[in-house]
Amino acid sequence: MKKVLITGGASGIGQHLAHRLAALDFDVVVSDVNEAQAIQTAQEIVAKGFKAQGIGLNMLDSASFEPLTHALGSIDILINNAGIQHVEALEHYPLDKWEMLQAVMLTVLAMLSKALLPQMRKQNFGRIINIGSIHALVASKYKSAYVAAKHGLLGLSKVMALETAEFDITINTICPAYVKTPLVEKQIAAQAKEHGMSEQEVVDRIMLAPMPKKAFIDVDEIFHSVQFLVAPLAKNITGQTIVIDGGWTVQ
Fold first, then answer.
1. Per-residue model confidence as pLDDT tens digits over 20-39
2. What residues contact residue 238 under an 8 Å CB cut-off, 6+ apart?
3. Which residues are CB-contacts of 212 (< 8 A; sequence separation ≥ 6)?
4. What are the domain boundaries of the chain?
5. Fewest 10 Å CB contacts: which of 26, 47, 246, 248?
6. Residue from 72, 65, 68, 18 nearest 46 by CA
7. Of the listed 93, 142, 146, 178, which one is catalytic?
8. What is the 3-state secondary structure (H, E, C) of 40-106?
């Protein structure tokens, strides 16, 4: 049974992946800054007859990563899913918010991967899947820190893929367009304020307008890509960006 560590696993995309992977007989570790919610998610999975545990994980406390990896034992698959957002024009963007977004979605993500890679090398197996964003490929106004971090994530993933190429380890990034999660729901309200328009106008004119298919991405679409990438026969797919964007970037 392969063990999966999911960051930001207590809500949204991460929570959905935890439930779906557990049902496929993976041993799931649900980690989240909200420890109580992580434990609750794990308990819900266990109640269905599957294997899971919930732990608190502060993505800003990289010093805890190495002890954590020892406590958890061998981690076969890491899904770097934790994310935060702050929407504001760069002229007014608070430095602490900028630094926090870079830390959670790039710097600390790299350090967590660093902590797990030695064991993956030792066992000659590992899958690291980064949950990126359409904003790793394109930009939107008022999201400077988020866009910068997600663009950096693609470069980091490619470097990690090269550095692990001699092992059965792969590093890939899934980049969906807008997924209807609590994080995106908050963005709708924030963007409405910044743009001076209604929330429905934000959905229609900003979020879905660039997509030829005009639809939010479903969490099951992301799960399908994860399921594909963790498979043994995906061993030569590494350093790649899997884009789920309804045709946004082909224009």
1. 999 999 999 999 999 999 99
2. 161, 164, 165, 169, 170, 171, 172
3. 246, 247, 248, 250, 251
4. 3-178+218-244
5. 47
6. 18
7. 146
8. HHHHHHHHCCCCEEEEECCCCCHHHHHHHHHHHCCCCEEEECCCCCCCCCHHHCCHHHHHHHHHHHH
36-62 pLDDT, tens digit each: 999 999 999 999 999 999 999 998 888
Specify the pTM. Answer: 0.93
Contacts (Cβ under 8 Å, ≥6 apart) of 25: 1, 50
Alpha carbon separation from 87 to 41, 91, 172, 193, 231 (Å, rounded) = 28, 12, 27, 10, 36
For residue 8, give both structure tokens: 């930001």
* Closest alpha carbon to 145 in 200, 194, 109, 99: 99
Q: Is 142 a catalytic residue?
A: no
Q: What CATH superfamily is the domain 3-178+218-244?
A: NAD(P)-binding Rossmann-like Domain (3.40.50.720)
